[in-house]
Amino acid sequence: MFPLNCVANCSALQDIDYKKTISLMDECRNVSPYLSAFKQQVEKMVVFDDEEWAIITTHLSLKTLGRKEHFVQSGEICKALGFIVTGSMRLYHIKDGTEKTSYFCTTNDFITSYKSFMKQEPSVSAIQALDDVLLITLEYNALQELLDNPVTARKMERFGRLLAEDLIFCYEDRMHGFITQTPEERYATLLHDNPSMLQQVPQHYLANYLGITATSLSRIRKRIFDTIKR
Amino acid sequence: MFPLNCVANCSALQDIDYKKTISLMDECRNVSPYLSAFKQQVEKMVVFDDEEWAIITTHLSLKTLGRKEHFVQSGEICKALGFIVTGSMRLYHIKDGTEKTSYFCTTNDFITSYKSFMKQEPSVSAIQALDDVLLITLEYNALQELLDNPVTARKMERFGRLLAEDLIFCYEDRMHGFITQTPEERYATLLHDNPSMLQQVPQHYLANYLGITATSLSRIRKRIFDTIKR
DNA sequence: TATTTTTCTTGTCTTATGTAAACGTTACAA
DNA sequence: TTGTAACGTTTACATAAGACAAGAAAAATA
Fold it and tell me: For strand C, which nucleotides have at least one atom less than 7 Å from a protein CB?
């Protein structure tokens, strides 16, 4: 297991020094010990053979983020697609100076600021670690190389398509909830479909995700749990 | 120009007879006169050469829908990806017996019930024509053939990826609106970014799209236009 | 352990929204 | 012309949500 605590111990360092430290540490680190979960998730979509994996692997990097560190800042270009080996993250927007969380990712999920990454333009959203996080990353240039390489091109296009489609399915469901359900129904649905998320994530983040305020979510919870008791 | 009025004139016929009529009419119709707009939109994403277009074209069909006719019904498997040559359509869900519109498409847009089409499973949403509509369609099996054909496979995978990505960009923006904006701000944004849509679409559909009731939208409009007058 | 920060709940007040129903207008068909 | 259906607006009323503030509880940190 990767010693995540060594990251946490550095968290008093300033942002910039800290990042340098990590990137130097990364140089010495090989992706391979953490590849199995990554391969497993990728091969749910496309099965690559050994030759292809050999190429892909050389295009991957490891990245560690301490709690509250950013994968992308708002206004920055998102440089990589991430795969979360351990930990969890949130995606948020800034509105009137306050943060609005709109998405969560956890172990075995892929994460990126999609439009920013694919178009290499400044991101409107930021992505931040909720815990200490270990990521496998695929940088934009590395992805382009895999899409250009005749050995990997065809399957990488397909992988990209299926990854995008999964995100669409997720958005379709979520949008469906916003259009057809009340905030209370959306919370109840989440409680039913994804109870683990509710325990891992601070409520005020969750409130944003549901499109309401933290105050309102607290009252919804009270309403629901009072009803259950009765 | 395609004589859409001939479709409208049949609209008194029962659903099932009507559909038969149209499908018979379709047999005699060649896609080619309507291809240019389609090609233009596709080639914003991927440029196909003549040999590839020749193959693709044989996999396309034409479909006409009269006003209020359905492209997909809720619970049905969505059989095709559509490209709107003329007309406009809406996507809606049913909640407590009432319809909730969640998406609009118009000329030069691609439309499908994504999850249903890609997984060939029953659709949770329905897609209906708002006008008389002329569509170029690509059926699921035809798409699979293009993805299997070595001549077209690589570029079709890419086309699929880029089409999916465009939809993600659209969802990202929309979700951003739901998380960070009030209904009034969402309406104002739409008024600014897409004024033509507001004029083409009935307000009660628009209200659903914004996540509010028609009553509330009417009040919002009154507030906004009163403010402008002052 | 003690202290600080973050998170959650509660209360009050104000405002926006949903529901349901009524009304006027328009488009279309009988 | 008349009738019907669809659409947009308005009203009254009840409810829920937002803003703001205070305090409790929990978690992170020293």
Answer: 6-11, 16-21, 29-30
Q: Number of helices (H) and strands (E), helices first, in chain A? A: 11, 8
Residue B44 CA to residue B49 CA, distance in Å, equals: 14
pLDDT tens by residue, A101-151: 999 999 999 999 999 999 999 999 999 999 999 999 999 999 999 999 999
**Six-digit token string for B67:** 């006003």
Q: How far is CA B136 from CA A66, B109, B187, in A?
A: 51, 11, 32
A5-179 adopts what CATH topology? Jelly Rolls (2.60.120)
CB proximity A222 to B under 8 Å: no
Please, what CATH class does the domain formed by B5-175 belong to? mainly beta
Which tokens hold the place of B119? 């997984």
SS3 content of chain A, % helix, strand, coil (to 5): 55, 20, 25
The answer to whether residues B113 and B51 touch, using CB atoms and an 8 Å cutoff, is: no
Which residues sit opposite B122 in a β-bridge? Answer: B77
Q: What is the pTM of this model?
A: 0.87
**Which residue's CA lies closest to nucleotide D20 at its C1' atom?**
A215
User: Whole-angstrom Cα distance, residue B113 to residue B90?
Assistant: 11
